[in-house]
Amino acid sequence: MSSREGGKKKPLKAPKKDAKDLDEDDMAFKLKQKEQQKAIDAAKANASKKGPLVGGGIKKSGKK
Disordered: where is this region (predicted)? Predict the structure, then answer.
C-alpha cells in the first residue's frame, strides 16, 4: 500500500476574488449597514447592564 491512498484529500484552492469597483449606492448601503450594526451593539450593551426583565421567579400563592 502506498501512503497516498488513504486519508482526507486536500481541497483545491479557490481562485481569489477580484476587488469590485463599488459605486455610490453600494458605498451608501455598506455605510448604512455599519450604522445599523453599531446601533444593535449599543442596544445589546444597554440590555446586558440591567439584567433580566422578569424578576419574580416562581410565583407563590399567599397560602401556607
Answer: 1-64
Buried b (16+ CB within 10 A) or exposed e, 2-21: eeeeeeeeeeeeeeeeeeee
Ramachandran angles phi, psi of 20, nearest 5°: -85, 145
What is the pLDDT confidence band of residue 37, given thresholds at 50, 70 and 90? very high
Cα gap 38→26, rounded to integer Å: 19
pTM for this model (two decimals): 0.44
**Residues whose CB falls within 8 Å of the CB of residue 20, separated by 6 or more in sequence, listed in order:** 26
